[in-house]
Amino acid sequence: MLVVFNEVGRSTLKASRLYLLRYPQRRQPSRATYANIDKCLREKGTFPTGVKKGKSLSALDENHQCSVLAAFELQPHASIRMIASQTDISCSLVYRILHQNSYHPYKIHYVQGLKPTDPIRRLDFISHMVVLHEEDKNIISNILWTDESCFNNNGIVNRRNSHFWSKNNPHWTYNAQIRWSINVWCGNFNNQLIGPYFYDCTLTGIRYLDFLVNILPDLMADVPDEVCDNMWFQQDGAPHHNANVVKDHLNQQYPSQWLGTNGPVKWPPRSPDLTPLDIFLWGYLKDKAYEQQPKLLIDLKERITAACRTLTTTMLKSVMDSIISDTKNV
């Protein structure tokens, strides 16, 4: 900046234009900055407050750079403060060394834990579904995709994004001790939402069988009988789904046409990315239900039911199309 300023005869206007022309990628200082820096250096011999003479990394001791980089290679989860203490270098200098060498603080990502046999079972399932889809292009729409999810009164609280702006401390609290919850069943058939149905008790094999025998037919009442006759049934590997009484009922009700852990078509465990309910529905419903903390169980049920009514055929079809596309690309 000072070189440019003196080249143009200490004219702030000309200095701004020349600096922009010469360094278009840099942040452009104001015209007053040139005069202010020049004045302080001439009168006081120092830079004005807020402008620091940075020590270039090229001038750093190469041993310091090697020490910092080696420390992070051995301790990739260490903090800048920790490495600065170990190497006796300032935190800002450690950060500059990392930045100069293209290091980035990557964050942890949560993923679904898998067992060694899971990939093979997933590929077998996908291969089976691809064959079925080639034989019947409507197979995906003829499957009743089902799942349960637990909703509770605490919802999802992100304290990082929750604020209460006030001049005085309002002592804003969130009661996380008193908990109650409700299990919700939903289905997706031919891009239409079936349900919701609320379980007010712990799910067991017997209770799930009672649901299949006595409740599900009522939920499917609007579906024509001839359509139900060709319907496939899908469920995941939840413990109550694997009860022998449930398996016997499904074998009788949907012979050779149901997907599950013990079904004719083996459902791969730990595969939430293969169902429209896990991929989209539960996240959508919980976003709606937890916009405000529910106070009563009936309030939570009403919110879930209202959120279900906002779902459209287009939304559900888009999810199913993405599953079909992803399956073909495996």
From TrEMBL:
A molecular function (GO) term: nucleic acid binding
The protein's name: Uncharacterized protein
Species annotation: Acyrthosiphon pisum (Pea aphid)
